[in-house]
Write a structure and sequence with these properties.
4 copies of one chain form a homotetramer. The first copy, chain A, has 419 residues and is α+β, with helices and mostly antiparallel strands. The first copy, chain A, has 3 domains: 156 residues, Malonyl-CoA decarboxylase, oligemerization domain (Butyryl-CoA Dehydrogenase, subunit A, domain 3, Up-down Bundle); 134 residues, Aminopeptidase, CATH 3.40.630.180; 118 residues, Malonyl-CoA decarboxylase, catalytic domain (Aminopeptidase, 3-Layer(aba) Sandwich), CATH 3.40.630. Chain A has 19 helices and 7 strands. In chain A, the strands form 2 sheets. Chain A has a 5-stranded mixed beta sheet, sandwiched between helices. In chain A, helix 2 packs parallel to helix 4. Chains A, B, C, D: Pfam families: MCD, MCD_N. Chains A, B, C, D: Its EC number is 4.1.1.9. Chains A, B, C, D: One of its GO terms (biological process) is fatty acid biosynthetic process.
């Protein structure tokens, strides 16, 4: 391969629109990677990075797997080297031996990712690369360990301090709104008119986190309804014939949908920060807001009922709600963690289970997953820390008195049933 | 210490402007740090981070030293734990043991820095914290090893892919221009009028890199003069009575000043990328540009002459230039690296020594450091890679034929003198 | 009516959200208008203006008519005063008598409009007010003379020098794109996907003029297709399964739709300036463009055929095209002006009739209005001025040789038919 | 002159940087003007406009005078035509005769200005043209009547509804700040540091009006100090060693300097609107503000004392203040208007004379013009309208009780003195 300087390359690309030939992709890859990691990378860095990413982009899944295998095996930690470095550090823990150890303790693939990222626009491609990895490699495959390197880097790059909160409104660019439609994971947005109902009225808000290096890609977004009192049905929130409330008359903010947008950022948590920031900004704008709550799905309720051997088909509404309350406060996985992922998220944030509602999500999905039941998690600012600590350390679930009562009524029934 | 939720805190700060009491700063610090690193940090993170950074900010140097010592000793690697993790990894290199090892191989102070950085505006404070470290702790002090952690993090955070190039002009905000005046390290800017002469005429350009999380702080900037032919004197470039050239008539871009702005980012290299990007952008805007050169100081020339036992006081101009050519092509430190830091930078980028000029910097500093001599380093795009490789691997310095001739004439003289 | 200062008013509005009662609207109007035009208007101006415009906004059509009548009759020129002023001016044409005459020669309703316009956001409301006037008052009604005052003011306010050209793309705000969909007057945009096909591909462009005081309202927009060669069918331009052309490969820009957006700006011509500006900007961006053409409807072709007594139902395609060529080059209204409004616009701009195409607009409207025929008007930059002068002064229509030949073939037939 | 289309021209200018030859400027001007006003102007408008303005720009003062004479005499009203049109209108006041009259009642030079203004950037040049006119032509010269046409147009173009308020801060672009330094007309800004003291601290504000077509040119600006209580000395406001007040602790906003920036906009009043808008915005941002006052110069106080035959050289401070109070409340010009221009402005806005201070402006200019005395005009929102009406209709000056007492004490003395 003839390698010009990347300066020259950039100039040529602009004026001549040369594109890199994609043939012989997988074969030449190790050589390109070595170039980028070597001294040459100082000068030809951005161009070599582009070659690698251009080629990666046209690979088949099989070739990608080969690429990941190369990262896992040929750019791995050197155990012997590590052992030497660790012994030297223990013997004499000065700066030199510390630096030597740090260098040995980081696999070269991390430096590769950092050098690839020097190319403008590369951050997005690296996030997509990790999405490929998660899709192609099972978590227990030895190769999957390179995912730990991605996570490590992304946790640094996507640090909360680097994220930007932007309001999404009817005045936002269409190519962003289009992605909101596409990425909505809780209550599907069926059309541009449906989207408009969620972002244009003055009692509806939507906020998203963005990273400056991926300005066209929302990372996570939340949809908020400003209401009087805590809403108990999502269909009423999303109906198309309601009269909007004047924003300053609202006393409650309902977070009714939170969606992660990037598969390649799985496990890099933004939701916690997003909710805090939005609570903070809304409070500053609308001093009349005093209650912050969610209207949330219970995505595994039906599955749990099934696993427990319950048949809810002829339950009354009170029975259903009692079971839901019990599920939210008491259902556990085998590893001791809460059964419900949405509950884990909000209870982990310090929220409490405030209420349960039947017939609250009458969509097909809502009926299937949770028999139409939805939950309000309440963010009581004065109790967040205490709730969080109890949940994190003793796995205690905070709940309002009515939910506690419901839970107990279900336990009585359950005892009876099982007796 | 009574810790409220940071949500509450943020709200209160806005409305009541509570400020954190700074008393008892050093004492409470380990406790606050532990809070931030523990489960509590999930909920109270941003507020705890602010407490820590607010307190750090009012510390005396002695207290800061105590703080750094805490980071170095109490948040260090656990060697025993590391050894166990490494053994497990060697025995069974699966994902679990890999993750276990990665966790053990990173000192907790790195996670601390990441959590501190979640606070809006913290990045700037952490960069300043490293500047304190470099000022207070000698590089061979064992505590100085925590600088390696800062460098490691900053190399990720300030990756080229995250930097933004902005043109600095007379239409830039005053608070940015003020920093350009303050940070200029090569040819001091003496007044706003002097600044204006460097950024307003159409044949003068200035570009800087910024990081999105520090939008008011340039990281590095370069000043460029567009000329016909390669300039040989900086005073003529900066004179206040010249007639500007129409930009499209220029054939040459002279990089006559490059200044790093942030002490706390020492060793995180941006200059290479900045020059490449500016060459690229200027070429796209002004197709008539064909030559990219510097007009650079030789900051250690006088010192080198002194060390070599030369007395240049009665040298003729040709003798002086011959010595300068020799210095640029041949002077080495004991460790084998080039003697001159500016030469190291440009030769390392693949430039060549194009010419030397006497009486080229008649400022007091110019006369003292280099007897008024300046250098043109030429960026010949077609030869960058080859020059870089020869310099990096064989320490060969590329030079134009006239500079080679000058060098040889000095060597003859030198042999004679020493004979 | 108790009138507070508008300062107070603005403050109150923000904090208390007082709204103006709309009752008794028409009755109090003359009094409010007098306040605004009097000395009081100096202090209470913006508030009084808002009162007037708020009240106008809730009027019935009958009340609006009453309002217009008031403007026409009570804020009219004073003929006696004018005569005196004119005599004084003729007697002694100094500055004082000139000022006196200028004041007398402007009806007070013009000053009223200027004072109303001091309120932020009023420009849009005044444009809508004129739309009401055009809707409610026939042009030959004496009251319609106040439309001349609106036109006079709007021609100043919407001067080309104040307009801003913005590109409309898929990254434009949704509330602007929504208006593009609504205002498209030539080839209806049927959905957001249809819109996207017109603004997102790199060989499709859309540009609009905006006024800084109405930033959310396009005034006029043009849709452009970049092609190789001159397109002959609009359905092929708008099809949803085509492969976009790389923009730099295009040699031709086809202006296939121009729509005025504001009824209230009727007669204030922007189209001429818009086309010039877009030609200019496209040429600067894409030097490969050498041909600028339209693909235009012939909205009155069917009507003209009917009026002439032609029955085209069994015409061959050559016969149809010959008739179209004749219509474009030769059809005149009774007042001597060209029969076709689109032809008047483009020929008045100096374009020439380049070609006619059958089956070029197969939409229902296209078939009904023009039997599916469309025209290319060519903007040949070297001939614009000469074409314009000939058309403006001698009503000569410039046409390409093929169109001239077609025209003659139709004339022969016509003579034959009529013989 | 060979005239290409302006489209072509614009394209050429960009790519070839053709500039218009300036020779034979004055001679060809009437021909160019006629081209622009004729049918040709439809096509070649922007280019012809640029020719005219480029040529005007290089004219000598004598040539400019010739140009103005041409506008005054050759593009004037046609009195005979006007008389005919007026008779027709009186005879039959329909729309046609009304339009005919409006056309006749506007001199062609107004349409000329509107067509010149179609060129991007022309607005600024036309404002400068009027500045030339005011400089070169005495107000009683017959040619000066064309200034009435400029005023008429500018009053429309610079309507309050089109102006944009921008805060001027230390983050504003340097080329704007430079103009603030240059245009400050009340208390000279002596350096960039002096400027910084007025715009950077949180208790100092500066606001300016801009027009969208002249985005780099402030039209008028006001400097504001946020204080506790009403300030009595400008030197204390501008001192360089004071400690800033937290903005939210201020109860008073002092407007201590208002400067018009554009000579060519003389007589187009913005100050009234600027103060209202700033009061409004500050109140919204800082609810703690309850008092809005000025600290104003009395520029003609010394002159008035001289004219009255007073010798203040051995007056005590109480005597000086009594005279100042009398001057502010009672001094009149021969035409009955208030003697002091600053008083006319603020009293006309509805403010009242709140206090007078000795030693309040110790600059050379302050001592010379007003013996160091300054005034607070108070903007009491609840009384603005009443004050304005009394001043406008009955020339009554509103003053605080202390100022009234001072005035009476001076009158007693005066009577005594004159007795």
């Amino acid at each position: 391969m003839s390698v010009l300087s990347d300066v020259l390359d950039l100039v040529f690309r602009r004026t001549m629109r040369v594109t890199v030939p994609a043939q012989a992709t997988a074969a030449a890859m190790p050589r390109l990677i070595e170039d980028l990691l070597s001294s040459k990378g100082e000068i030809t860095g951005v161009m070599t990075a582009r070659h690698i990413l251009d080629r990666y982009n046209v690979m088949t899944d099989a070739e990608k797997l080969q690429f990941f295998t190369h990262l896992a095996e040929d750019l791995d930690l050197d155990h012997a080297d590590l052992e030497t470095a660790l012994h030297a550090l223990k013997a004499k823990p000065d700066r030199k031996s510390y630096d030597r150890f740090l260098a040995a303790a980081e696999p070269r693939r991390q430096e590769l990712a950092r050098r690839l990222n020097r190319m403008p626009g590369a951050t997005r491609l690296l996030v997509d690369m990790r999405a490929d990895l998660l899709r192609l490699v099972p978590p227990d495959d030895p190769i999957a360990r390179i995912d730990s390197d991605f996570r490590h880097l992304f946790a640094s790059w996507f640090n909360r301090g680097f994220l930007v909160l932007r309001r999404i409104s009817w005045e936002s660019p269409a190519h962003i709104l289009e992605k909101i439609i596409r990425y909505e994971a809780v209550h599907a947005i069926t059309s541009w008119e449906d989207l408009r109902r969620r972002v244009e009225p003055e009692d509806r808000r939507c906020f998203a986190f963005f990273h400056p290096a991926m300005p066209d890609e929302p990372l996570i977004f939340v949809e908020v309804a400003l209401t009087k009192g805590i809403a108990s049905s999502v269909q009423s929130l999303l109906s198309d014939d309601r009269t909007p409330l004047a924003a300053h008359e609202a006393d409650t903010a309902i977070f009714y949908s939170i969606s992660n947008c990037q598969v390649g950022l799985a496990g890099i948590s933004f939701g916690n920060s997003l909710i805090k920031q939005v609570v903070n900004d809304l409070t500053a704008e609308l001093p009349g807001l005093s209650t912050f709550s969610t209207l949330s799905p219970m995505p595994l309720f039906s599955r749990w009922l099934l696993e427990q051997g319950f048949d809810a088909s002829d339950w009354t509404k009170p029975q259903l709600l009692a079971a839901a309350a019990y599920y939210l406060t008491s259902a556990r996985r085998n590893d001791g963690h809460h059964y419900d992922p949405v509950a884990r998220f909000h209870l982990g944030n310090g929220a409490l289970v405030h209420a349960v509602h039947a017939q609250a999500d009458t969509s097909q999905r809502g009926k299937k997953d949770s028999l139409g039941v939805m939950t309000n998690y309440l963010y009581d600012l004065a109790r967040l820390e205490q709730n969080h600590e109890s949940f994190a350390n003793q796995k205690q679930v905070a709940a309002s008195p009515p939910v506690q009562t419901l839970t107990q009524s279900f336990q009585s029934v359950e005892v009876l049933q099982n007796a």
